[in-house]
Design goal:
The structure is a homodimer of 811-residue chains. Chain A is built from 33 helices and eight strands. With 811 residues, chain A is mostly helical. In chain A, the strands form two sheets. The first copy, chain A, has a four-stranded mixed sheet. In chain A, helix 5 runs antiparallel to helix 7 and helix 9 crosses helix 11. At the A-B interface, helix 1, helix 2, helix 3, helix 10 and strand 1 of A face helix 1, helix 2, helix 3, helix 10 and strand 1 of B. Strand 1 of chain A pairs antiparallel with strand 1 of chain B, so a sheet runs across the interface.
Chain lengths: 811, 811
């Protein structure tokens, strides 16, 4: 490529400026390497090699490829086990065909057993393994630490229970749990790698890897790297960070590669293809006149998606209510899971009702048959039906294909909504996918019956492809439930065909427009039901909140520490709440905000004083608490032009432990908004501080004699964050919301001219946006509610404005 | 779907809480609509219908669809014209085949004429039309207002010159200019729509629409909505904002749909297919053993991409130097364009050197032939060669396919790098695409020759598909030049096949890894060469900058306004610089930051005083400058727990004009980081304030008598932004960089305990990150420089640390 020839040549200008820079540097630092002793040079070289090793271990791409590899292997092995379990299910079922009751027993008991094992294993080993995991990851990526959610124990629990659940053929999926598994693998791999390289201790980096874990989880689940990255970005964060984008791509691509390579090496497949490879015609994928049908499907899927979310919420709330009423039924996690399992496997029992809904097929087999290239309603291919095992399930002597497909869609709809409420690892993505594909197939078969010779275009006969409708339907319904656009991309990668881009995108966009105006997404619903912290979107409907300022909704009752606080004050503050960080002000009169200090630091101060008192000697503080003192930062080369006015009081305390941590992270390209903008050093490390211990300390201190209690606390050994996030008084709600969203803040202090006047946390912001919050944190919107809202909005605003006017005159 | 049945039923809990909320509201506002007079009710109804109309006109999706439609039509019509021009070129060329010199003259003169017209038209109508437009859009989306870049004049100039340039068959593309055209259309459409609906006056919304315009531009250029959205996000912003994501998708999808529908309606095509639809086999797309070849191509393309950027930079700098030396040559824009045009068309003259590089083919024809399904080096299809017009160009009696392809790639490489330096509208994407495809075809043909029977896999014979190599090569080289991953997605949508996802992604990722470590992207290079404001990335190499704090690089010499400033002070401050915003502090002694004020506001104050002095009467201020006064915000319902301490001084001045503006924007969902976080109201509107006028005012004021000059300025009528963006002293460089990146800041004030101590602008931040900036703002890195850097980095850091130690001991 002629690159090497250019290696030696440098641009003249570039050279000049570089030399100038070097000169400048040399002038400031007159010594150079050659003047050092040979011993030191040797040491430098050893460090150099050490650094090379650390560089290699710590290189992003190596980590990302290992992560991709691990996830691909987990996904592949899980698929193998699931196929093994379902094959065994069929084998037992076929074996016991002598008597239908025996067969029924075998069919139901097998599922029941696996389900009970899964529910039991999950609840015993780690209850955090239950559910999808996507809502929790969404919360975790907001910076909220969910205890026990990312441990090895949970990983094991999730993987093993998931295999059993999928093996029991409950209509749930693995995509959601795989997001969780991907994140756990990423975090655990970070922990493992930190044994070799210090940069893995950087929490900002780990947070980034969490996002990558989400992407690689989805990518390895469907062998769809692009869709996986986009989907993980859409569901986990409102603001995408570009560096994560390429990291996610690298890891997900490598993961997908390995995930598709493994079947080839295993001898199952010949080469790398899509997971559900389709072979629709390329020359004339669809007729223009089919576009309205695709668009209509998108709209119907939008309503369907919103209704699914509504149904799920209703079932969950019903179960919660029952829980309160009937404690016996709900005390036992097995019982609920067992009941649902028996109900569903009874209905899908192939010789029973299952014959009307292809109960014999697994989810994968159903999908394969939906994406099939042939037209089922076409009578010419009846011969095909008999020879093909999957298609045979859709044939029934008494009912035609349409009836079976309709029953399938309706039954699976509520079954899936019910199944994902169980306390087991389960995702909603794949079942929705299957239902959408079934619905699409139904529409497609209908179109094929309506236009048996295809829609006529100038003499050519192009038959309708019902499989394509299944593809579009699957993408649209999933989009309606998850509120994402990337399901379209996942669909394309999954089927290995992109000729249907426009129909897919059109229906996905329409489904999103409809369902977003009706309901929150399934993940947001879970977040609300589980009462996880979240930040609602400022939607179109919130325009009347434009003129709210931060001081209108901030918490004014702030507990703070002053520089002249006594031990009694600190004790009182610590006992009155359990905030992780407390603001430090200069004095209660001035309220000038100096920074913030961790609760744990204050506790340490109290403990140290207690020890001093008991032992009478000054114990040495742990090294990490030692800080340098800097009362001036005069090393800055620039000179001040206003020496008299522009040099106000410097904050007297400066942390340097954090600074040192930063320096020892050689590849700190990782810009975690959370980390950088909130500067909460080591908050996780201190979290598992035993609370009982604190209480005893606090009680003990109360028993001190008066003079000691009134002694001023010495903050010299305290790590104070000099730059906690501050909002200026008068900041609008919109701006505050943007700051919290973009920077993933948990809280921010509100200052007016440097004085602390309040604090805003997620809670206050959420209240300000939502107006009010129900007691249980859940407010399910009935379907079509927003249409009703919209109709009266005009009048309502008029009224509000009138009220405002009247209030103004009255006052 | 059973949705309507659920419509009436509401969740009990939801109802309860809603009622509670309503009750609460009613208690506060005892009047209701029914108590109003019928006349008022009527008025309310009229307003209601007005609002409905505004809602319809102002609905996002209508705007987005109109934008997509316009762009699709522009793209389609442009393509029609370009085909017309190139057909005419061929026609003239064929007509004059009696004599080779006449033919040569016809070939060259035609291109020359179009080029000169394009260059002349662009330079006369609007010189801003020159170039790609992507770098400028990148800068504009950072919030920097580039004058005249988004006007109707520039749009006309860009469209017409682009048609001529593409018609003259210069190796340039339309993708870059289409980003610019899309943005212009978006802004102009906003302006047009603002005649009907006020919400289009919202600048935040317009900024969002700018992003959408970029996406739709690319989407309509290649009929690739997904790739378009991703590409526009990758090149325009480091931080993706989710709402723009779906807006871009909607607009780009509709645009692509129309763009592909138009040829169908025009009778050119039968149905919607991909632009360069390929029909490679679906069952066995590629052999596993071909993956290393794809990976190697990715790496080579990474080097090639970096070298292209280097070459482009070198040519531009050379031309700049020549400009300074030979003013005659460069004075005339025509001359340079004409020279390049003659040079290139001479070389591509088909009977001349052009026969060795398929000079006869247009870019589209070259691409079509590269993506061809047949293997050229296979001797069986020679018959095909003769019958196919495109393929015949690659056949030469004296030279085989490999030589012609190599010459094509090498010649086009420098020709493209040269062409995009011309002062005409031109994009680098498509030519790079063609070169990459040519390189891929070369590799593919080589592979096909090496393995004529395909790579053997258990008996089956699957021939190598050289067309697939062309697809991968095109994606990889473009990725190397633009530093994006979405070129892979664009490639898939362009060819209508997704079976090569993994090879494409692998090569794209490798190309990115190589080229990103060698050179900035072509767009960043243009930004640096044009000296547009930019913010460099904090890369891995910047780890030694982790401990730099904001006070180390901020500008301490801040010009500020105090509340007791005199007219003399204001005059002095305004004359000493031309900052758009000035900080307002309480007094020079306290330096407490109260807010910031626009330069234009201060000028208005001075003018008003001057008028008062001249006329002796108090002129009425324009309505928009009137503000309410609020010295207390006691209307907040929450009560303070620390009445004595937590209620510090409120800022005495509060803007409400901005507030009103916010309220009149009914659909202010548009959260522009820029707008919300910088709060610079109406800065654009005041930009075209005549500067000469200001100077005369300022001079006039200097001539005032002493007592008037020493009079204190009354800021009561001044719009003061109470919450300009502030950074707290001690903020680390990393955090500052993140803030600036995420919130798209231009500047931020640095405060220590509420006191203004400095200001940081993009310039200071850039300096701090880059260490130093060459005089001309350009620093081209020679290829492979970073590898050399990396080798010595370890030692260099040791040295730096030693220096630091020695400095410390000395001081």
């Amino acid at each position: 490529m002629g690159v090497d020839g250019e290696d030696q040549s440098q641009l003249e200008q570039g050279n000049h400026t570089k030399d100038a820079g070097r000169l400048h540097r040399d002038r400031r630092h007159p010594t150079s390497l050659s003047e050092l002793s040979p011993c030191h040079q040797c040491g430098v070289r050893v460090t150099h090699f050490q650094r090379l090793f650390v560089t290699l271990v710590g290189a992003d791409w190596i980590f990302l490829m290992i992560l991709g590899f691990i996830m691909a292997v987990i996904s592949f092995v899980m698929d193998l086990f699931v196929i093994l379990f379902t094959d065994a299910h069929r084998w037992i079922y076929d074996l016991s065909d002598s008597h239908v009751f025996l067969q029924y027993f075998a069919w139901v008991a097998y599922s029941l057993l696996l389900m009970c094992f899964a529910a039991g294993f999950a609840s015993i080993v780690s209850p955090q393994a239950a559910g999808s995991g996507i809502p929790e990851m969404k919360t975790a990526l907001r910076g909220v630490v969910l205890p026990e959610y990312l441990t090895f124990r949970t990983l094991v629990s999730k993987v093993i229970s998931l295999i059993c659940v999928l093996g029991s053929e409950l209509p749930v999926g693995k995509e959601g749990p795989f997001v969780h598994i991907g994140s756990m693998c990423a975090i655990l791999l970070c922990k493992f790698m930190s044994l070799f390289s210090g940069i893995y201790k950087n929490k900002a980096r780990n947070m980034e890897m969490l996002t990558v874990g989400c992407a690689v989880g989805i990518g390895c689940c469907f062998a769809s790297p692009i869709g996986g990255v986009l989907f993980s970005m859409e569901i986990t964060s409102r603001y995408f960070v570009a560096p994560n984008y390429w990291r996610g791509f690298l890891s997900a691509t490598f993961g997908s590669l390995i995930f598709r390579l493994l079947p080839v090496w295993h001898g199952e497949e010949e080469t790398l293809t899509a997971l559900y490879a389709t072979k629709y015609r390329l020359d004339f994928p669809f007729d223009l006149q089919e576009l309205p049908a695709f668009a209509a499907m998108g709209i119907v899927c939008g309503f369907g998606g919103a209704f699914f979310v509504y149904l799920y919420g209703k079932i969950t709330l019903f179960v919660k209510k029952q829980k309160a009423m009937n404690s016996f039924l709900m005390k036992n996690v097995f019982l609920y899971s067992a009941l649902v399992s028996v109900l569903i496997s009874t209905l899908t029992f192939p010789p029973g009702f299952g014959q009307f809904m292809a109960g014999k097929l697994t989810q994968r087999e159903s999908l394969l048959s939906f994406f099939d290239n042939r037209t089922w309603s076409n009578h010419c291919i009846v011969a095909d039906f008999d020879s093909d095992d999957y298609l045979a399930a859709w044939k029934h002597p008494q009912a035609n294909v349409f009836i079976i497909l309709t029953i399938f869609v309706l039954m699976k709809f509520w079954m899936s909504a019910l199944s994902i409420t169980l306390p087991i690892p389960c995702g909603s993505f794949v079942p929705i996918f299957v239902i959408g594909a079934g619905f699409g197939r139904l529409v497609g078969e209908g179109m094929a019956t309506l236009f048996p010779e295809g829609i006529n275009t100038e003499g050519h006969i192009y038959h309708i492809v019902p499989g394509a409708y299944a593809v579009v339907g699957a993408a649209a319904l999933t989009a309606g439930v998850t509120h994402t656009l990337s399901t379209g991309v996942i669909m394309m990668e999954l089927t290995g065909q992109i000729s249907y881009t426009l129909p897919i995108l059109i229906s996905v966009i329409l489904a999103n427009m409809v369902s977003q105006s009706l309901q929150p997404s399934i993940y947001d619903t879970v977040i609300r039901i589980k009462k996880l912290p979240y930040l609602p979107l400022l939607r179109w409907g919130h325009r009347e909140k434009c003129n709210i300022r931060v001081e209108d909704f901030m918490e004014r009752d702030v507990r703070y520490v002053t520089l002249n606080s006594t031990y009694r004050d600190i004790n009182r503050i610590l006992r009155s709440g359990n905030l992780k960080m407390l603001p430090v002000v200069k004095s209660a009169e001035s309220m000038l905000l100096l920074g913030s200090v961790e609760r744990a630091q204050l506790l340490a101060l109290l403990k140290q004083r207690a020890q001093d008192r008991r032992g009478g000697l000054v114990p040495s503080m742990p090294c990490s608490y030692r800080v340098h003192f800097q009362t001036s930062t005069e090393e800055s080369p620039s000179t001040s032009a206003h020496p008299d006015s522009s040099k106000p009081l410097k904050p007297v305390l400066k942390k340097s432990a954090v600074e040192e941590e930063e320096i020892t992270n050689p590849y700190d390209s990782g810009i975690s908004l959370k980390k950088l903008c909130c500067s909460r050093p080591d908050i996780d490390a201190l979290q598992d501080y035993p609370d009982t211990d604190d209480d005893t300390i606090l009680q003990e201190i109360e028993e001190w004699e008066e003079p000691l209690l009134d002694e001023q606390v010495n903050f010299n050994n305290c790590k104070i964050d000099p730059a906690p996030f501050q909002l200026v008084e008068g900041t609008l709600l919109h701006k505050t919301h943007t700051m919290f969203s973009v920077l993933n803040l948990d809280y921010a202090y509100v200052t007016g001219i440097g004085r602390l006047i309040g604090v805003v946390s997620l809670k206050e912001l959420r209240k300000a946006i939502e107006g009010f919050l129900p007691a249980d944190g859940v407010r399910l919107r009935p379907v079509l509610a927003s249409f009703r809202d919209r109709g009266v909005r005009g009048a309502r605003i008029e009224t509000a404005e009138l009220h405002k006017l009247l209030d103004h005159q009255a006052s």
